[in-house]
Every structure is written in structure tokens, then in C-alpha cells.
């Protein structure tokens, strides 16, 4: 597991950076890469192999990337250790995400750091700011990591806390099964967003037209009747059936877990379970 840490608030011309360490950190080649167009004002900070960040962390190789940041294997020139440095986008849309993760990492480094299993928890080692060419500016109206992105965000509809509940459902499925609930791909004929929406429909059923047509991007994906424009009939494979047939989860467990998730994946954000309601669900309390 990659250990890493983050930054606090963004300020003009500044990127968020966080540092982390793991004894068995091992970079792996990844054929996928971030969109080079996002190396722009408010986007990714340009990092090159051999760069030295904060006069201390020398970049050795790239470990990976996400919607919010890139992650680099670096040598701590002061301590001689290998660390993971996560460089957050500088746009103000990413500031809160950085603050939230930083708060979690500080909490993990509190009293729990003395627990015998603390080495399995991400530990915050350092944080600093980097002034760069892609400084502080609102960058993108999209939120959420791709696989966890809620339907309303995909459609360009208004969103709020229920969008995070959708993400929690995706993450819970991944923690239990080891696989992403949705893994959208781009092809020559359809966009990644269309494939994402199609996967949602295959799992959860047809999207009510009132919802499908509610966003500013809806016309890019749906006909006036609420059908996908460039994707034919889809085969429904319910969440319960996926858990039983693909992951061989026992029927009773699959029933409780699927009910727990489906309450967080309602197409209507206002009908989704709240965090408090999720905590009271029998799948967690029994």
C-alpha cells in the first residue's frame, strides 16, 4: 500500500504537496497516464525526473496519478529514505479535498500511531507548497475520482452531499470485492462518460427520463425519450446477482450488502440514504 500525505490550503501560484513513506514502496509501470491537457493553469504541476522538490525530495520516478493529483517516488535527500510525494492540482475546486485528506492523515498519525497495526495506515511525514507555472485558479467544475463519480455529476446536474454518498457506495463495493463498481473505458464510438452511464444502467436499471435529461450534458448522451444515443440495448445484471454470481457471496450476505449499497445509489439524490442512516443499516449493525 502506498503511504502518502498532503497539503493545506491553496494560495495564488501554489500547488499542494504531501509526502509519505513505505518500506516496500515499489513503483510499477502504468500504461495509462493523466490527460496532458490538464497540465494547464489550475491543473497538474509539471514534475520531471531529477527535479528536487522543497530542496529535499529528489524525483526518481512516477508512481501514478489520479483526478486530483500525481504521485512520485522520491529520495529524501536529508534522511536517505524513499518517499511518495503527492502533488495536488492547484485549482480551487481541489482545495477542500486536500484539506479533508490532510485532516484524516493527521488523525491517523495521532494516538493510533502507537497501535501494533499502525504501519498499515497511511502516515503523514511532511507537507509543503510549490510555486509553479500552473498556479491557483478554478480549473474544472467536475468533482470526484472517475470510478466514484455520481450520476448527477456525470450529467452536469446540481450536486451536493448525496454525491459523496454515491462515492461511498462505490468505495464500499471495492473494499468488499476488490474490484471497482464501475470501470468506464473510452472507445472509438463512445466516450468514457457514456460508457460510465451505460454501466450504471446495466447495474441499476433504466434512468428515469426526468433524471436523465436534467443535466447540462444530458443532450450529449440521451435522446429526448431518455435513451442513450450511441449505445444499444443493455443487459441488466442486478447488484445482488453480481455479488452472488460473480463474487460467490452467500445469499443472505449478498441481500444485506446489496440493500446497503442500493440505498446510496438511488438515481434521485434527495432520496439517497444519509451518512447517519447508512450507519444504522442492519448490514453494518448486525
List the helices and strands and how they pair.
Elements: E1 14-21, E2 52-53, E3 57-65, E4 69-76, E5 82-88, H1 95-108, E6 126-131, H2 151-155, H3 161-177, H4 192-204, H5 209-212, H6 218-221, H7 239-246, H8 251-262, H9 275-279, H10 282-285
Antiparallel strand pairs: 1-5, 1-6, 2-3, 3-4, 4-5
Helix pairs in contact: 7-8
Question: What fold name goes in the CATH topology slot of the largest domain?
Answer: Transferase(Phosphotransferase), domain 1
Strand content: 5-15%
CATH architecture of the largest domain: Orthogonal Bundle
Structural class, by secondary structure, is alpha+beta
- Shape descriptor: globular
Gap between N and C termini:
30 Å
Question: How many discrete domains?
Answer: 2
CATH class category name of the largest domain: Mainly Alpha
Helix content: 25-40%
| CATH superfamily heading of the largest domain | Transferase(Phosphotransferase) domain 1
Largest sheet: 6 strands, antiparallel
User: For the CA atoms, what is the radius of gyration?
Assistant: 21 Å
Helix tally? 10
Number of strands: 6
Q: Residue ranges: pLDDT <50 for 5 or more in a row?
A: 1-15, 21-31, 137-141
Strands ordered across the widest β-sheet: 2-3-4-5-1-6
Order of helices and strands: EEEEEHEHHHHHHHHH
Mean pLDDT across all amino acids: 82
Protein name: non-specific serine/threonine protein kinase
GO molecular function: ATP binding; protein serine/threonine kinase activity
Pfam families: Pkinase
Catalytic activity: L-threonyl-[protein] + ATP = O-phospho-L-threonyl-[protein] + ADP + H(+); L-seryl-[protein] + ATP = O-phospho-L-seryl-[protein] + ADP + H(+)
Amino acid at each position: 500500500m502506498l503511504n502518502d500525505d498532503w497539503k493545506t490550503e491553496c494560495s495564488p501560484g501554489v500547488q499542494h504537496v504531501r509526502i509519505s513513506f513505505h518500506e516496500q514502496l515499489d513503483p510499477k509501470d502504468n500504461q495509462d497516464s493523466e490527460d496532458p491537457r490538464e497540465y494547464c493553469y489550475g491543473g497538474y504541476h509539471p514534475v520531471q525526473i531529477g527535479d528536487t522538490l522543497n530542496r529535499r525530495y529528489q524525483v526518481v520516478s512516477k508512481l501514478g496519478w489520479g483526478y486530483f493529483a500525481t504521485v512520485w517516488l522520491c529520495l529524501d535527500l536529508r534522511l536517505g529514505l524513499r518517499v511518495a510525494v503527492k502533488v495536488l492540482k492547484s485549482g480551487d475546486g481541489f482545495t477542500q479535498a486536500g484539506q479533508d485528506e490532510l485532516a484524516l492523515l493527521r488523525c491517523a498519525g495521532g494516538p493510533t500511531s502507537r497501535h501494533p497495526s499502525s504501519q498499515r495506515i497511511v502516515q503523514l511525514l511532511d507537507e509543503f507548497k510549490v510555486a509553479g507555472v500552473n498556479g491557483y485558479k478554478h480549473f474544472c467544475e467536475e468533482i470526484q475520482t472517475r470510478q466514484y463519480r455520481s450520476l448527477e455529476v456525470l450529467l452536469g446536474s446540481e450536486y451536493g452531499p448525496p454525491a459523496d454518498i454515491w462515492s461511498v457506495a462505490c468505495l464500499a463495493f471495492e473494499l468488499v470485492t476488490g474490484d471497482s463498481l464501475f470501470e468506464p473505458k473510452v472507445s472509438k464510438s463512445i466516450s468514457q462518460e457514456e460508457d460510465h452511464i451505460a454501466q450504471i444502467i446495466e447495474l441499476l436499471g433504466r434512468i428515469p427520463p426526468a433524471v436523465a435529461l436534467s443535466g447540462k450534458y444530458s443532450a450529449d448522451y440521451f435522446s429526448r425519450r431518455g435513451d442513450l444515443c450511441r449505445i444499444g440495448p443493455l443487459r441488466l445484471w442486478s447488484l445482488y446477482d453480481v455479488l452472488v454470481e460473480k463474487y460467490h457471496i452467500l445469499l443472505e450476505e449478498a441481500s444485506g450488502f446489496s440493500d446497503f449499497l442500493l440505498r446510496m445509489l438511488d438515481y434521485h439524490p434527495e432520496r439517497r440514504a444519509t451518512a447517519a442512516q447508512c450507519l444504522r443499516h442492519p448490514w453494518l449493525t448486525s
